[in-house]
Predict the 3D structure of the following.
Amino acid sequence: MKNLLKYLFVFLLSLNLIEAQNKIEKVSLTYGEELPDDNQKIVKIIGEVNDKIYALAIKGKNDFFIKIFESTSMKLLNSKLIVIPEVLDKEIDFEEIFLLNSNLYAIGSVYNKKDKTFNLVANQISEDGILSKQTIVLFNSEVAKKSDKGVFYFKQSPDEGALLVMHTALFSKENAVKYEVKLFDDKLYPLFSNTEKVKFDDGKKDYEFKIADFELNFLDDVFLVVNESYRDSKKKEQIEKFEIHTFKQKSGYKKEIININISGREIINCKMLATAKNTLKIVGFYSSVKENGKANFDLKGVYNATINLSDNTYDEVKFNEFDYQTKVKLIGERRAKKGKEVKPLYAIHSIVEKNDGGLIVLSEFQTVYVGNSSGIGPLAFTPVTYTKNEIIVTCLKPDGSLEWSNVLPKEQSAAITTMSFAFGAIGGNGNFAVGVAMQIPLVELGKGPEYLGAIPIYRNNQLNILFNDNVKNKGITNIEEIKSLGNYNNAVPSLFIFDNNGSITRKDPEEAIKNELVLRPAVYYRKSDKEYIIYASRKKKDKLGRMLLED
């Protein structure tokens, strides 16, 4: 028996498995082998299949690599530079990479000046990281000009077996926006496609037109929401129109339109979530309006509309105003007493579907400061500071009304210098915008911003949130007392546990471990509600790991 235990111990050492580096309450973090010092920083964990983990890494300005790991030891098996073959003698700009069931694809885009088309292509990658020479054309989208070529947006199905892609572009001379949406299976065979030009009238007062979000549910139904708003100066009203375009598989993807009209409030943003109960949740922030119909452009609270997809009906839209205690935490007691409102500097971080059909909405304070560039032309450098502070946690009942709310105290920032700067997930021009998501571009990850943000964990009707914090904040939940994260290389993981009434319990490591690996919350893969693949580092030491939530 002793010999058996001895051999087992040697076997575990040979795999270089280590004990949990951190265990906070029921959350444990374990790590595998140290990765080679190759200056390749992981910016996306793509997925795990057939005992292999796939990740995307970046080196330098924009050289992307596919990295392949053995699942058990998390040992690096292979690392290959991604070079998508040229199309019509034109270089392809890398866009994204996806694992659809067991099929891995690199996706890139290229603009064709002659045809005025913006094209999206894909090449399959073998399980050993070899890129196929056979190119699959996904989009060949007509655009008005290069400067208005638009942006491609991506979403995987809940089972990760299908890929939904949307392209939007502005046709300013026609006062129109063209959107093209396609659904592909795991072989990138098109299952559904729809192209439409939507006219808008920017001659109205305070006019805004937005393709707010798009979504894909477990039935492979496709949804897109268009938000049009303007001020009726005669009636002194703010008019908000939601038009949800639905394409259901059972109807052969025939287009259906659901209209939701709102007056007397300004919609700040809009996100969709297709639930397991075959409903479509529309949620976001709203603002109050003045007597003349002009919006105040503050955050009054959170709204929610629930659409029953079996018959496309919906109940009354619920508007949940921030309560006094929440406003005190966000803007201070003195300002809250004076009736001041919350500034519109919060973006929806994530939406969690509760077991009872309600939602938990996490909205994070986010700003990006872009400084003045120095240098000339392509050698110009631009300082960029990302800030991600407190998170408003709003728990909604199944009917969309407020159950509870609280504020997660957090103060984080990271400054980088970049040779190019662009938000790939946010497009717009004038009164037209696409507000699909706010995220840090892949090319900016690996430099510091990936240490910011938080990881939500929802299991057994309980919300947990994990993020990097200043070790001096141990035990502190009062937002007025917390200190800024400071140097993220010295951060420690902190866990916040929410009970059924929204009260917070904070858990910190018993003691800070010197030279401890630091989690990168912007880079993780949710394998299940109790298991996450994570990425952590300290200086030049990088490791993949697993975060497990015990029952």
Summary: The radius of gyration is 24 Å.
